[in-house]
Specification:
The complex is a heterodimer of chains A (292) and B (317).
Chain A (H helix, E strand, L loop, with lengths): L1 E5 L1 H4 L4 H13 L3 E4 L10 H5 L1 H18 L3 E3 L2 H16 L1 H11 L12 E3 H9 L1 H6 L9 E4 L23 H8 L3 E2 L18 H17 L4 E4 L2 H7 L3 H8 L7 E3 H8 L17 H8 L1
Parallel strand pairs in A: 1-2, 1-3, 3-4, 5-6, 5-7, 7-8
Helix pairs in contact in A: 2-13, 4-5, 4-6, 10-12
Chain B lengths: L2 E7 L9 E7 L8 H12 L18 E4 L2 E4 L5 H4 L5 E5 L6 E3 L2 E2 L2 H9 L26 H4 L6 H5 L1 H5 L5 H12 L7 H8 L13 H5 L6 H14 L6 H16 L4 H8 L3 H5 L2 H9 L16 H14 L1
Parallel strand pairs in B: 1-5
Antiparallel strand pairs in B: 1-2, 3-4, 3-5, 6-7
Helix pairs in contact in B: 3-7, 7-8, 7-10, 11-12, 11-15
Classes of the chains: A alpha/beta (292), B alpha+beta (317).
């Protein structure tokens, strides 16, 4: 199993533990990754808002880089994933548009045919690795743990560019994965809502209130941890949890793990090797629970 | 087929809190809609169930409610499309608006927001003798927004409104574009100046909920983003949202990828805002969050091509 790996800006920046844990988990599962070192930022919805054709061109370039390797593309960020899927849908729908965009790739010797398969690590685990193979490599069941899934908007909406019509099971991949790892998945309304991160610099109060509301709901429902496939959500849920406590006037203290960190623990990878010490909300108590 | 409904009931005049009531209908046709089923319940099972509906053809926008947790029109939703045979369909009133009774919500909040954007044409000069003549091409951009049937599904599921009732919200802002984009309107500048204030276009988080739930394909978020572009082009640039967007683009243009620290710092317009980032920055440092490639924002391989693509396409814009 081999993928062109698109880590995204945050895993290479403010969330190094995501990059670290992804490499650890994929290695443990025998997944080969060829990192697309020269790929551009997807634009995270911000560039497409400024200039849709520019953002689509940058993403087409990334898809062409994956195509040059003859590999499907794997990303590890809900936002990157959604932006890529949206761009790919536009490029695939309109051959004339794709042709026009390809003209900007030609000086670099690149060409995108429109065929790159784009998968988030979550989808790779559920669809390509499969739960049977994953469970066969598990050394630890995460029993007694209650994990609250938090998807991130772009991996769930708009559903029609994410293949949910053909694969409705994608709506519950996180819950199913959590249960397969032996933990209990906490049901709560916030799991597919917005974390508020996109407006952190524009309306900090609302942003923190949104994050605080979701963490509080998960915490109130008895979650020992939250787990997210989106590093941008992680920046708010984990990185700003202290401030979010103030926004909802409640003490919040719920560790938030990146998806590969949770999977990594079940695979028996040491918490340190998963970068668990870099999470902002203290994971020490959680790590103790893991070791039981 | 059998239809199992779990309906959220609440009568503020008598109930202490909302509760769910289950209804079971048998021998329903395969194409039965959720609205058909609810009307059947009201007519034949429980006349106390309150719901609002009219056209039954996704035109009037009266029957927006949450079905299995997501806002939509009950008349447009077949039971078979939202549940496996025999499974329970959960029906709740629309969100972000107070419940009057059961599935009926008070739309006052919705209409107030529509009113707030000035939903009428503001022309200048003498009225023409007959109708205004406008080129067809200049009205095509409005097709999306005029498709809105004011059902409130987008308002129901807007994640920002859930946190901040003062947000103008998706329906009103999509309607705002309907006038900003209308060549007959002479107050575009004033309108944009209003819409960039607190509670306006820059408070949208891009969460796609309104795009997902709109039963008429209006995609309100797209029009909010269009308003942002229009506002920036019209000179309303002193906003963290504009700074954020510009710095984002500059950062990617220069190095091929995003410099998060610079983005956060340079988006903030005041010293106080910049200082608010210090605690989280410090915490990151103390937790050893050093990027795997080192602390300095290096240029990606091929950054020169990324820069070239920017230059080619920004110039075209």
């Amino acid at each position: 199993m081999k993928y062109a790996f698109y880590p995204g800006c945050v895993a290479k920046g403010g969330a190094p533990e995501l990059y670290q844990s992804t490499l650890a988990v994929t290695e443990a599962l025998g997944i080969d990754l060829v990192e697309l070192e020269g790929a551009a930022c997807t634009g995270a919805g911000v560039l497409s808002e400024r200039n849709p054709e520019l953002a689509d061109t940058l993403n087409a370039r990334t898809f062409a880089l994956a195509e040059r390797h003859g590999l499907p593309l794997m990303n590890i960020c809900s936002t990157c994933h959604g932006v890529m899927c949206q761009a790919n849908a536009r490029l695939q729908k309109d051959p004339a548009y794709l042709e026009r965009i390809n003209r900007h790739l030609a000086p670099e010797g690149l060409h995108y045919s429109g065929n790159t398969i784009i998968k988030h690590l979550l989808w790779v685990l559920m669809e390509d690795v499969g739960l049977d193979a994953l469970q066969a490599k598990m050394v630890k069941r995460l029993g007694d743990l209650r994990a609250a899934p938090f998807y991130g908007c772009y991996i769930v909406r708009p559903s029609w560019v994410l293949g949910y019509d053909e694969k409705p099971e994608r709506q519950r991949y996180l819950e199913v994965l959590i249960e397969a790892l032996g933990a209990e998945s906490v049901e709560y309304t916030g799991k597919d809502k917005c974390c508020g991160f996109p407006i952190l610099t524009m309306n900090r109060e609302n942003s923190l209130k949104m994050t605080g509301t979701h963490v509080l709901e998960a915490q109130t429902k008895g979650a020992d941890l939250m787990v997210t496939p989106c590093p941008l959500c992680h920046l708010n849920l984990d990185g700003s949890q202290v401030e979010a406590s103030g926004a909802v006037n409640e003490h919040l203290e719920t560790p938030v793990l990146h998806l590969p960190q949770l999977v990594g623990v079940a695979l028996g990878i040491a918490p340190q090797a998963l970068g668990m010490g870099k999470n902002m909300v203290n994971t020490r108590r959680l790590i103790e629970q893991f070791s039981h | 087929m059998d239809v199992n409904l779990r309906v959220r009931r609440y009568d503020p005049s008598g109930d202490h809190k909302p509760y769910f009531q289950d209804y079971r209908l048998t021998d329903q046709p395969d194409g039965v809609t959720v609205l058909d089923a609810l009307i059947d319940v009201r007519e034949n099972v429980d006349e106390t169930l309150a719901l609002r509906c009219s056209c039954r053809s996704s035109i009037c926008g009266s029957c927006a409610m949450r079905i299995n947790g997501q806002a939509t029109l009950a008349c447009k939703t077949k039971v078979s499309s939202v549940s496996q045979p025999g499974a329970t369909v959960t029906v709740e009133p629309a969100g972000n608006m107070p419940v009057l009774k059961d599935l009926i919500v008070d739309f006052e909040i919705f209409w107030n927001k529509i009113n707030d954007i000035g939903p009428w044409l503001k022309t200048e000069g003498p009225d023409p003798e007959r109708e205004y003549i406008v080129d067809n091409d200049k009205m095509l951009n409005l097709i999306g927004t005029v498709s809105c049937i004011m059902c409130g599904a987008c308002v129901s599921d807007c994640t920002v409104l859930a946190a901040d009732p003062d947000f103008l919200g998706p329906a009103a802002l999509a309607k705002a574009y309907r006038f900003v984009g209308d060549p007959r309107d002479a107050h575009k500048q004033d309108r944009l100046g209003e819409y960039v204030q607190d509670g306006g276009v820059w408070d949208c988080t891009h969460c796609f909920f309104c795009v997902e739930v709109c039963p008429k394909g209006v995609a309100p978020m797209d029009w909010i983003l269009e308003l942002r572009r229009e506002a920036e082009a019209a000179g309303f640039t002193n906003h963290n949202g504009v700074r954020h967007s510009k710095v984002f683009a500059e950062s990617v243009q220069e190095a091929g990828w995003l410099d998060e620290a610079r983005l956060a710092m340079d988006s903030m317009g005041t010293l106080k805002e910049k200082l608010s980032l210090v605690p989280v920055g410090l915490r990151s440092f103390l937790h050893g969050k050093i990027p795997p490639t080192g602390p300095f924002h290096y240029k990606r391989p091929g950054a020169e091509h990324i820069k070239r693509i920017f230059e080619e396409l920004e110039a075209k814009e």
